[in-house]
Write a structure and sequence with these properties.
Blueprint: H1 6-24, H2 29-35, E1 42-46, E2 50-56, E3 65-70, E4 73-80, H3 84-87, E5 99-106, E6 111-121, E7 124-131, E8 138-144, E9 148-154, E10 159-161
Helix pairs in contact: 1-2
Length: 164
């Protein structure tokens, strides 16, 4: 029995959805690809200072990408259009997806909404969300019987002495 990770399951689900959309679209495969919505792939990673999203959107002009935050939800919208001169070509195969997309992400309360930046380079939109100062991990020094000291990460600086 094979157990899929969350990432593998998401990739499989995206492939099934794409296949279904391409095969069973009422407009047929060619027209569906020029007007269908699609979801660009996103990587999300976190370190002690930031949460970063990398969204693959090659072939989309930066002016056609909108990034907004409202009610702790980050929303990225955009559109990839088929160029007019390309529409007139006699395509043998169309695999790239065209149309509009919207991706939304609920942000944790640890994000500082005043410290958000986005840059676009080589077809990748990178959004950096800084964490609030109080949300960053800090070292906690724990003293036991005045002899041993342990250090652990936590939300605030705290000294604890036992045997008071």
């Amino acid at each position: 029995m094979t157990i899929l990770t969350h990432r593998e399951f998401s990739t499989l689900q995206d492939r099934v959805n794409r296949t279904f959309r391409e095969s069973y679209s009422p407009e047929g495969p060619g027209d569906a690809l020029t007007t269908a919505n699609f979801a660009p792939p996103v990587d999300v990673y976190e370190d002690e200072h930031n949460i970063t999203l990398k969204i693959e959107v090659p072939g989309i002009d930066e002016k056609d990408i909108d990034v907004s935050i409202e009610n702790n939800t980050l929303t990225v919208r955009g559109e990839r259009t088929l160029e007019k001169e390309e529409k007139e070509e006699n395509f043998q195969r169309v695999e790239r997806q065209y149309g509009s997309f919207t991706r939304s992400f609920t942000l944790p309360n640890s994000v500082d909404l005043e410290q958000v930046s986005a840059d676009y380079n080589k077809g990748v939109l990178k959004i950096r969300l800084a964490k609030k100062v109080e949300a960053k991990p800090k070292q906690i020094r724990v003293t036991v019987d005045g002899e041993k000291t342990l250090e652990a990460k936590g939300a605030s600086k705290l000294a604890v002495a036992s045997g008071q």
